[in-house]
Amino acid sequence: MTDKTALTPRTHTTPPARFSHGVKKGNILQVAGQVGFLPAEEGKPPTPAGPGLREQTLQTLANVKAILEEGGAGWDDVMMIRVYLTDVAHFAEFNGIYDAYFGEQDLTQPPAARTTVYVGLPAGLLIEIDALAVLG
Amino acid sequence: MTDKTALTPRTHTTPPARFSHGVKKGNILQVAGQVGFLPAEEGKPPTPAGPGLREQTLQTLANVKAILEEGGAGWDDVMMIRVYLTDVAHFAEFNGIYDAYFGEQDLTQPPAARTTVYVGLPAGLLIEIDALAVLG
Amino acid sequence: MTDKTALTPRTHTTPPARFSHGVKKGNILQVAGQVGFLPAEEGKPPTPAGPGLREQTLQTLANVKAILEEGGAGWDDVMMIRVYLTDVAHFAEFNGIYDAYFGEQDLTQPPAARTTVYVGLPAGLLIEIDALAVLG
C-alpha cells in the first residue's frame, strides 16, 4: 500500500478541523482550500492579509504554493485550480492579479485548468483556492 | 481499456438523474455529492435525516462511506473531501461534528484535505459532501 | 517527466485569464469550468447560447465534450461532473435536459458521478460545468 502523506508547511495556521492542508499519495497531490491567512503567529488567531482582494489573493496563492512545495511539486504540476470568490464584481480585478502572478512564476508547462464560482465564505474572507496536482 | 465501475450501495436512494453515486477506474474512486438522505424505503420519497445539522452531517458521511466501501476503499484512501454548507453560521458546529466523527474512524493515514464553501442547496438540505480517493 | 498538455478546441473563446480550457497529463484529463458560450467569432465578445437554460446547458455540455475529444477522450472516460447552477428552481428542468443529453451519447460505461450546487455566476450565465476524466 502506498502511503498518504500530510503536507503541512511550517508557517501555516493549524487547520480548524481534522483535515490536512495537503496530501500526497503516489503521483496525486491535493491541496485543501486555502485562504489568505498570514503566516501563523503563536498566540494570535489566524489573520487574513489585507486590506483588499489583491493582498488576500496573493497570500492565498502563496499558501497553495507552499503546500505544493512541501510535496516536492510546483505550479507546473497543477492540473486544476478551483477559485471561490464572494463577489462577482471581483472577477476582472481577480483575473488581473492572477495573470500577473502566474506571469512571474516561470512556468514551463501550460497553465492549469480553472473553475471560478461565487459562494459564501466566513466573514473577512474574500477568496478561497484549492488545487489538484499530478506529479512526475 | 480499464473499466469504469459504478458504485451503488443497496441502501441508497436512486440518483435523481443519469449519474452514479460513485465510480471507480483503476486506482481512482470518485464519490458523487451525497446528502443526508436516510436509507431508501420503497414507495417513499428521499427523506433527509433530522432534525438538525448533526443528523444530516452524520448521515451524509455514512452515505459517502458506504460508497467508498462498495469500491473496496475507506476513509484512509480519501484525498479530498468537499463540503457544501448552506449557512456560514454552521461552520463551528459542523467542525465539531466532523472532528468527532473522524476521531472514531480508526484512521491509520493522515486525514484528507478539505474545502468548505457555502452555497445554495435544495430545500431541506443543509449539507452536501463529495470525495476523491486514490486506492492502493 | 510527463508533459502536461493544454487542450484548446479551435472553436472555443479565449479564456479570460491565464488558464487552460483543459489539461492532460498521463492518464488524467481535467476540463476547466465551461459555460454556454457559442463558438467564438472574431471581433465579437463571448456570447452565451439562449434564450434559456436548455440552450445554455446543451452548449456547455458540447463545450466540455469538445475539450475531452481534443484530449482523445470522451464522456465514457469522465469520472466526475461538477455542475454549478444559479437557481435551485432549475434543478428538475436541468436533470431532464441532462438525462436526455446523456441518453443520446451512446455510453458504454456507467455514467460519471456528479455534484450539483447553486452559486453565483457572472451576469447572463445560468450554468457552469467542469469534469475530471481518467483515460485508458
What does this 3D model show about the protein?
The structure is a homotrimer of 136-residue chains. Chain A has 136 residues and is α+β, with helices and mostly antiparallel strands. Chain A has a single domain, classed as 60s Ribosomal Protein L30, Chain: A (2-Layer Sandwich). Chain A is built from two helices and six strands; from the N terminus they run βββαβαββ. A six-stranded mixed sheet of chain A has the order 1-2-3-6-4-5, covered by helices on one side. In chain A, strand 4 (78-85), helix 2 and strand 5 (113-118) form a beta-alpha-beta unit. The model of chain A has no long low-confidence stretch (mean pLDDT 96). The B-C interface holds B 1-6, 15-23, 25-26, 28, 30-33, 82, 84, 119-123, 128, 130, 132 and C 27, 76-77, 79-81, 88, 91, 95, 98-99, 102-103, 109-119, 132, 134, 136.
Sequence-ordered SSE layout with sheet pairings:
Three copies of one chain form a homotrimer.
Chain A: E1 4-6, E2 22-25, E3 28-34, H1 53-70, E4 78-85, H2 91-103, E5 113-118, E6 127-134
Parallel strand pairs in A: 4-5
Antiparallel strand pairs in A: 1-2, 2-3, 3-6, 4-6
